[in-house]
């Protein structure tokens, strides 16, 4: 899998996925061609493109808002042109506008569903032709929140649950076309979206101590499993969701998040910022 489109690749988990895909392709002796997206042409996005080129990959940035329903098709066309076809699309862009259900605005609900779930549908439809040609792979980045109730994840948890079902629907319809579709679901992973509560090493340790594997997750943990899902060892895997959460969902995240001093409500409110915010 060397011709890949990665959404939300400017930082955190998406950045780690980009770097892992490039490293693996180069180790196999193939030239990675990677198109990376984020909302805007930020320095983060430029930085990951530079890091990929430094590794030896061909890489380009294609910024745009995945809440715009016309963007996924344009993005896939641009990626296909840059890469000369597509072997995989990883939809990692996502996030929450967290709060209680009673205070959730309709527009925020729609924004969260659009980026986390609808965009994967639109990317998949747009990429169907090139992926059918390459016998390629679609990979969605879900969340352990799709399976466990967590405080304030009003629209986000339902959107990730819908994403998981969409993966199964796509796998069923497009398996006969040679396209595999899977979901990789992180647990609590250190990234910008969680750093407001996890950047303090003490808080990382306290939180990690309650997780069965006794640590929080890192973007590279997720990237490694994405690499497996895209690779030949997963050739007979489709319609699946793989949780990469250190066992977090087995302990119930509400007790984990409420057990510490961190202000999770403030943290969550700072995630995805919609126009209405
Ligand atoms: N971190 C965790 O603990 C955790 C846990 C479970 C699941 N996840 C999932 O893992 C994925 C990555 O998480 P992360 O923590 O690494 O996220 P992050 O650091 O917040 O990065 C999110 C990425 O998505 C992009 N993005 C967000 N909204 C977008 C939009 N409307 N259009 C285009 N790009 C958009 C961002 O672009 P900009 O840089 O331009 O904003 C950024 O590149 C997400 O799907 C998230 O839901 C994360």
Describe the structure.
This protein is α/β, with parallel strands linked by helices and 277 residues long. It has a single domain (3-269), classed as Rossmann fold. The protein has 10 helices and 7 strands. It has a 7-stranded parallel β-sheet with strand order 3-2-1-4-5-6-7, sandwiched between helices. β1 (3-7), α1 and β2 (33-36) form a beta-alpha-beta unit. The longest helix is centred in the middle third of the chain and has 29 residues, at 106-134. The chain is globular, with a radius of gyration of 18 Å. Bound molecules: NADP nicotinamide-adenine-dinucleotide phosphate (NAP). Residues 7-8, 10-14, 37-40, 42, 44, 65-67, 92-95, 115, 141, 143, 186, 188-189, 191-194 line the site of NADP nicotinamide-adenine-dinucleotide phosphate (NAP).
